[in-house]
Design goal:
It is built from twelve helices and 16 strands. The chain is an alpha+beta fold and about 400 residues long.
């Protein structure tokens, strides 16, 4: 049974939970770093204890694919529940819905300042942001981004508000494609038209200004304000509740969560989850790449040993320092490396010149194998290998 304000209370609870996550998560640290932050200057994404370099964009792509499929699935099953219950546009409009114009402007100023700063915190840690703010040293990029975001949010909350949902939001335009006859919608039960007293309470409270009695419309954000407004009228008149309310497809419709489209999207979500797990699980701690050094021709040392030089790129993808022990093996060769150990800090990338001397090789080319043993805290956590060609030139006459 629908009671006055029931959906509004739940929506406010959902908005409060979202605010706690959006404002609180930047302050959470995992392994000494923000739980979730994109470090643009360093080209790294820090995500819940892992650190991804910009060349690991496939991890982000897998995550975006999963979120997209889940978004489509939720839309198919629950309609525009995102719009009415979780979209920042709706949540922020609710937070600034003061009755008096002056109060609305004042609340918009405060909300815009805080929310725009919280967006910056996803790129600049708040533990860095606040000391720089206190010292007046935010810098033009950070301060400019904060000011631009503040201006956009303030103009949105004072001028556009729900009109954005009704006119410009692309998701609203897609709902006709994503919905089917069993999607959850807010609707007016036209079978009970005689119960409607034409008080227009549902119209007055609608943030997008539609009349729900005219059927499903793209402007509807499924916030159920109309249902909350209608419920006390029906109760006062001692008439059945839910003249306006949530229905699956239409009044009298039933939920069909196992319909073909939902099963297909559910399968897609499972596949996307498996892909993301596989990509993260297969991610190496160390990125190793070695090529012969340009400008250094293989040569013979005075003692007759072959000398080769390689340019070796090493990158630590982890959040802890590691030591990389290098070794090179080749059939019948006695090989020495310089350097044979390289220390890498968290997320550090280094280019080192590796000089290899090898004895016991006949003139010509032989395939060798460069190995890198990655140790952390004295324990080996990973081994990487790469094929390398050793060149042994002819001995000088």
């Amino acid at each position: 049974m629908t009671r006055s304000g029931r959906f509004r209370r739940w929506r406010r609870a959902a908005g409060a939970a979202q605010a706690a996550v959006m404002l609180g998560l930047p302050f959470v640290r995992v392994g000494g770093e923000s739980a979730l932050r994109l470090d643009v200057p360093a080209g790294r994404l820090h995500a819940f204890g892992a650190s991804f370099a910009i060349d690991e964009a496939f991890v982000v792509l897998a995550a975006v694919l999963l979120v997209t499929v889940l978004f489509l699935l939720v839309t198919l099953l629950l309609g525009r529940v995102w719009c009415g219950w979780a979209c920042p546009q709706t949540v922020l409009a609710d937070l600034t819905s003061a009755r008096r114009p002056l109060g609305r402007v004042a609340s918009a100023l405060v909300v815009s300042a805080v929310v725009s700063a919280s967006i910056v915190w996803w790129f600049v840690s708040p533990y860095e942001f606040f000391p720089r703010l206190a010292a007046g040293a935010l810098g033009p990029v950070v301060a400019g981004s904060w000011a631009a975001l503040f201006a956009i949010l303030f103009l949105d909350l004072t001028l556009l508000r729900a009109r954005f949902c009704a006119t410009a939001c692309p998701y609203a335009k897609l709902q006709g494609v994503l919905f089917d006859r069993s999607t959850l919608v807010v609707a007016y039960d036209a079978r009970r038209a005689a119960d409607c007293v034409d008080c227009e309470a549902c119209v007055r409270v609608c943030p997008t200004g539609i009349d729900i009695r005219h059927g499903l419309q793209t402007e509807c954000i499924a916030c159920a304000e109309c249902a909350d407004a209608c419920a006390p009228i029906m109760a006062k008149l001692r008439r059945a509740p839910d003249l306006v309310g949530y229905f699956f497809g239409e009044p009298g419709g039933r939920a069909r969560p196992l319909r073909p489209a939902a099963l297909a999207l559910g399968g897609g979500a499972i596949a996307a989850t498996a892909l993301l797990v596989a990509v993260v699980a297969a991610r190496a701690v160390l990125d190793l790449s070695a090529v012969p050094e340009f400008g250094f021709a293989p040569r013979r040392a005075p003692d007759g040993r072959a000398v080769n030089a390689y340019s070796v790129a090493l990158e630590n993808h982890g959040r802890a320092p590691v030591t990389v022990a290098l070794a090179l093996s080749a059939p019948g060769a006695d090989v020495a490396l310089r350097p044979d150990r390289v220390a890498l800090g968290p997320g550090e990338r280094r280019q080192v010149r590796l000089v290899v001397t090898a004895g016991g090789l006949a003139p010509g080319r032989v395939q060798g194998e460069l190995s890198a043993a990655v140790s952390r805290g004295g324990a080996i956590v990973e081994r990487r290998t790469q094929r390398l060609a050793l060149v042994s030139p002819e001995a000088a006459p």
